[in-house]
Automatic annotation (TrEMBL):
Residues 327-474 form the Asn/Gln amidotransferase domain. It comes from Alicyclobacillus cellulosilyticus. GO terms for biological process: glutaminyl-tRNAGln biosynthesis via transamidation; translation. This is Aspartyl/glutamyl-tRNA(Asn/Gln) amidotransferase subunit B. Allows the formation of correctly charged Asn-tRNA(Asn) or Gln-tRNA(Gln) through the transamidation of misacylated Asp-tRNA(Asn) or Glu-tRNA(Gln) in organisms which lack either or both of asparaginyl-tRNA or glutaminyl-tRNA synthetases. The reaction takes place in the presence of glutamine and ATP through an activated phospho-Asp-tRNA(Asn) or phospho-Glu-tRNA(Gln). It holds the Pfam family GatB_N.
Length: 481
C-alpha cells in the first residue's frame, strides 16, 4: 500500500520589539538569567498588562505579508496550563479571534509554484525557558523570555513532503526578515517550529493519526526529522500496526525521533477572554498605514530580477533569499555594474568570503560601490578576472578601493596593441612548432602561444587583445596567415 504524507507546521516568530508585550522589560537575548523580569511578566498579584503597540503593528505587518484577512476587531484570551516556565499559570494569547486568518504563501518545488494555506496568525506572549541537567537530577528556569511578544503562524495541512516543509519554513523566515518583523535566529529561539505529520493511504480523504515533533532547531533537522517519521510510520502501517498519537523530539546524534509523551486527546486549555485587556480595534487608517510598510517580498523581487535584469532563476533565488543580500546586490547594480556580473561576484566571492568568516552582509568589508568599481576595472580591461579575484581578497583585508590596490600590486593590464605587437611577433618567431601545429589545425596550440606571451608580460597582457593579435598574425587554424 502506498501512503500520502500530510504535514502541518506551527511556526513561532518572536517579534523585534525592544520591550515585552505587556510590560517594559527588555527583550535582549543573552542577558544573565532572570534579570529581564518584573512583577508584571512574573505574574505577581495586583499587576496589570499594558499592550505594546509596536508588537501589534509587527504582527499586523506579518499577517498582511502572509496574505491574511485581517480581523480589525479582535481580542486576547487566557490559555490556561501549568508548567514551570509559565509563572502566571496561563498564557495571554488569541483564540477564536486572531489578528489574521485564511492566508497563504507560495513555495517553489521542482520549478513549480505551490500554494500553502495559512489557517491563522495570532499574537501572544512567549513562555520562559527550561534547562534540564543532562543526568536528570534537576531543572533550571530562565524567565527572561517570559512575555516576549511573538506570533504563531499555523499552516493548513497542505504540505506533502519533508522537502516542502523545509521550503515553507525558509519562505516564512525570508518574509519575516524582509518585513523586519524578526531576526528569525533559530539558534537564539526567535524562530521555532513544531511539526505535525501523519500518513494516509493514497486516495483516502480522512487524515491518519498524527505525530507532533517539537524542539527542532534547524531547517535541515526539520526535514530530516520528518523524513525519519515518514519511514517510521510507513513501516508501522505496512506491518498492520497503528500509529500512536504522541509528541516526539529529534535526536541529532542518532538522526531519529524519540517519544517524549503520548497525547491521547487535545489539551483542554480552558480558554476565556482576557479580563485585564480591552478588545483590540484596528481602524482603517491604522491598517492602511501598516499596509504601506509591507515591502516588496522575496518572490515578487525574484520575479522582477528575472524580468527586468534578465537574471537566471537560480541567481534570482539566491540573491532574494536574504533581504540584506538583495539590498547589497541592488546597490552594486545602481553603482553601474552589469547585473549578471554583479550577481556572479555577490553569489560566489562576496558570500563565499562572508560565510567563511561567519559574517553577515551588513559586516562586509567591501562596500557595494567598491565592488562595482572592481567590476568596472575588469570591464575596462585593466585587470583580468583572475587578477580581480586577488584584488577582491585584498579589498576584504584592507578595505581599499580596487584602483588603489591594482597599482600597489602592480597589476595594470597591458591592453595597448602597439605595446603588445612586438612581444606577439617575438613569441611567434621563437615557437615555430606551436605555430606549425596551429596552422596544421590544432587549435589548442594557440593556447601555448598565449601562455608564452602572458609569461613574457608577467601576466599583465590583456588575453582578449593577445588572442586578437595572434589571430591577425596566424589566421584561422588550418588556414594561412
Amino acid at each position: 500500500m502506498n501512503f500520502e504524507t500530510v504535514i502541518g507546521l506551527e511556526v513561532h516568530v518572536e517579534l523585534k520589539t525592544k520591550t515585552k508585550i505587556f510590560c517594559g522589560c527588555e527583550t535582549t537575548f543573552g542577558a544573565p538569567p532572570n534579570t529581564n523580569v518584573c512583577p508584571v511578566c512574573m505574574g505577581h498579584p495586583g499587576t496589570l498588562p499594558v499592550l505594546n503597540r509596536q508588537a501589534v503593528e509587527l504582527a499586523l505587518r506579518a499577517a498582511l505579508a502572509l496574505n491574511c484577512r485581517i480581523n480589525q476587531d479582535c481580542k486576547f484570551d487566557r490559555k490556561n496550563y501549568f508548567y514551570p516556565d509559565l509563572p502566571k499559570g496561563y498564557q495571554i494569547s488569541q483564540y477564536d479571534q486572531p489578528i489574521g486568518e485564511d492566508g497563504y504563501v507560495e513555495i517553489e518545488v521542482g520549478g513549480e509554484r505551490k500554494r500553502i494555506g495559512i489557517v491563522r496568525v495570532h499574537l501572544e506572549e512567549d513562555a520562559g525557558k527550561s534547562m534540564h541537567a543532562p543526568d536528570g537530577s534537576h531543572s533550571l528556569v530562565d524567565y527572561n523570555r517570559t512575555g516576549v511578544p511573538l506570533i504563531e503562524i499555523v499552516s493548513k495541512p497542505d504540505i506533502r513532503s519533508p522537502e516542502e516543509a523545509r521550503l515553507y519554513l525558509e519562505t516564512i523566515r525570508s518574509i519575516m526578515q524582509y518585513c523586519d518583523v524578526s531576526d528569525c535566529k533559530m539558534e537564539e529561539g526567535s524562530l521555532r517550529c513544531d511539526a505535525n505529520i501523519s500518513l494516509r493511504p493514497v486516495g483516502q480523504a480522512a487524515f491518519g493519526e498524527k505525530t507532533e515533533l517539537k524542539n527542532i532547531n534547524s531547517f535541515r533537522f526539520v526535514q530530516k526529522a520528518l523524513e525519519y517519521e515518514v519511514e517510521r510510520q510507513t513501516a508501522i502501517l505496512r506491518s498492520g500496526g497503528k500509529v500512536v498519537q504522541e509528541t516526539r523530539r529529534f535526536d541529532e546524534a542518532t538522526q531519529t525521533t524519540v517519544s517524549m509523551r503520548t497525547k491521547e486527546e487535545a489539551h483542554d486549555y480552558r480558554y476565556f477572554p482576557e479580563p485585564d485587556l480591552v478588545r483590540l480595534h484596528i481602524d482603517d487608517e491604522w491598517l492602511a498605514r501598516v499596509r504601506a510598510t509591507v515591502p516588496e517580498l522575496p518572490l515578487a523581487k525574484r520575479d522582477r530580477y528575472m524580468r527586468e535584469l534578465n537574471l537566471p532563476a537560480y541567481d534570482a533565488g539566491v540573491l532574494t533569499s536574504d533581504p540584506g543580500v538583495a539590498a547589497y546586490f541592488e546597490q552594486v547594480v545602481a553603482a553601474g555594474a552589469d547585473p549578471k556580473a554583479a550577481s556572479n561576484w555577490v553569489m560566489s566571492d562576496l558570500l563565499g568570503y562572508l560565510n567563511a568568516n561567519n559574517l553577515s552582509v551588513a559586516d562586509s568589508p567591501v562596500r557595494p560601490a567598491q565592488l562595482a568599481g572592481l567590476i568596472a576595472e575588469v570591464d575596462k580591461g585593466t585587470i583580468s578576472i583572475k587578477q580581480a579575484r586577488e584584488v577582491f581578497k585584498a579589498m576584504c583585508e584592507t578595505g581599499k578601493d580596487a584602483p588603489v590596490l591594482i597599482k600597489e600590486l602592480g597589476m595594470e593590464q597591458i591592453s595597448d596593441e602597439a605595446a603588445l605587437l612586438g612581444i606577439v611577433d617575438e613569441v611567434i618567431a621563437n615557437n615555430p612548432k606551436s605555430v606549425a601545429d596551429y596552422q596544421g589545425g590544432k587549435e589548442k596550440a594557440l593556447g601555448a602561444l598565449v601562455g608564452q606571451i602572458m609569461k613574457a608580460t608577467k601576466g599583465k597582457a590583456n588575453p582578449a587583445v593577445v588572442n586578437k593579435l595572434l589571430l591577425e598574425r596566424l589566421g584561422k587554424p588550418g588556414g594561412n596567415a
